[in-house]
Every structure is written in C-alpha cells, then in structure tokens.
Amino acid sequence: MESWKVLEPSTMSKRGVNTLECITLRKSKAPANKSQLKFSVGDPTHDGNLVAPPSAVDALVRCVEGNKCNGYPQMTGRPDAREAVAQYWGKNFAPQQSAHCKGENVVFGCGVSDVFIVSLTSLCDEGDNILIPKPCFSFYDFACELYSVEARHYLCNHEKDWEIDFDHLRSLVDGRTKAILMNNPSNPCGSKLFTTTHCGPHSCLRGTSPPVDRG
C-alpha cells in the first residue's frame, strides 16, 4: 500500500513563530510541593472566575429557541448587531460624534485574532507597516511576519500607567504606514493606553492618514 506523502509547510507558514503558543504548550514540571502557575494563559475564564451575566445567557437562550438565527449571517456580522454596537459606542464613547457611528462601519469577527488578520490583509501589502504598542499581544507580531508586513512598536510609558508616547508614535509614521493599533485597555498591561482627554491635545494623527484600530 502506497504511503501518504508528507507535505512540506508553505513559505508563509515558515515566516514567523507564534511565541505565545510555544510558551503555552511548553511542558515543564513544578517542584513536588508546589502547584504550577501559567502566566502565559490569557483566557480570563480559565479558572471559572469570570462567567457570562444572566442577561447574556437569557438573550442567547431566546435566540436559540426563537429559530430565527439558524442560517449563515453576513461575514461582517448581522446588520442589527452591528447597528447596536455602533449606537452603544456613540452613546458611551463618542457622544459628540454619535451621528458618525454607523453600523455599516462595524465589522464582527471570530475573536480579536481573526479581526486583526482581516484588517491587516485588507489594508496592507507586503512591505507596508503598521504601528502597534510596546508591549503588545504577541500575536500581532506573528501575523505581521506571516504577511510580510513590518510591525513598528511605539513606546508606552510604564511610569505613567502605560500611556502612549505620542511623540515616539508620530516619529514612526511614514508613507507606507497603513494603520495604527491602539489596544485599549492594554493587552497585556490591563491599563488604559489613552483617554479622549489624553489623546485629543496631542493630535497624534494630524498630518497623517492611516486608519486607527482602537480594538
């Protein structure tokens, strides 16, 4: 019987290393009298300390029992859900510009990693660059390596609760900068990288044109 041919990994798959996955899956032994703590696990539900609120559970049950959402939704998300997110954002985060918060500008995805890949491949060609915070969620670097996009890290000041150094951020922008990622609150630091009051006076994007992902 002819054996299966082992396929070689693609060039793209060999461009980068998912360091977070390597750390998470790495096997190590704790001393006999100690339990092991894995700081690499980023799942807040891992220990059962974070549960879905009853309102979310009830809404999901009603959705399943109603049999009105059994088909395939649009790739970008259901229009009513996208509109709900836009209204929530406008009311709570951009009341002065709520008229510009529209459902058509909201895109749903399967987790942050999926949305980041969609954004990256939609905006960037090989050799382009995006600006991401330092420190950051390591998957961002991995995804950029896969698609040959340069990840430029702008500094965050640990002495000021990890606020963005906007002067350093602006110094990294050039003609091939396609996006600026502002992960707020910060992953992995958990702090607010910026507030509306903090961001406004700096006018960090004045004279530049890249879109901003405030994930």
Automatic annotation (TrEMBL):
<dbReference type="InterPro" id="IPR015422">
    <property type="entry name" value="PyrdxlP-dep_Trfase_small"/>
</dbReference>
<protein>
    <submittedName>
        <fullName>Putative tyrosine aminotransferase</fullName>
    </submittedName>
</protein>
<dbReference type="GO" id="GO:0006572">
    <property type="term" value="P:L-tyrosine catabolic process"/>
</dbReference>
<dbReference type="GO" id="GO:0004838">
    <property type="term" value="F:L-tyrosine-2-oxoglutarate transaminase activity"/>
</dbReference>
<feature type="domain" description="Aminotransferase class I/classII large">
    <location>
        <begin position="35"/>
        <end position="192"/>
    </location>
</feature>
<dbReference type="InterPro" id="IPR015421">
    <property type="entry name" value="PyrdxlP-dep_Trfase_major"/>
</dbReference>
<dbReference type="InterPro" id="IPR015424">
    <property type="entry name" value="PyrdxlP-dep_Trfase"/>
</dbReference>
<dbReference type="GO" id="GO:0030170">
    <property type="term" value="F:pyridoxal phosphate binding"/>
</dbReference>
<dbReference type="Pfam" id="PF00155">
    <property type="entry name" value="Aminotran_1_2"/>
</dbReference>
<keyword id="KW-0032">Aminotransferase</keyword>
<dbReference type="InterPro" id="IPR004839">
    <property type="entry name" value="Aminotransferase_I/II_large"/>
</dbReference>
<keyword id="KW-0808">Transferase</keyword>
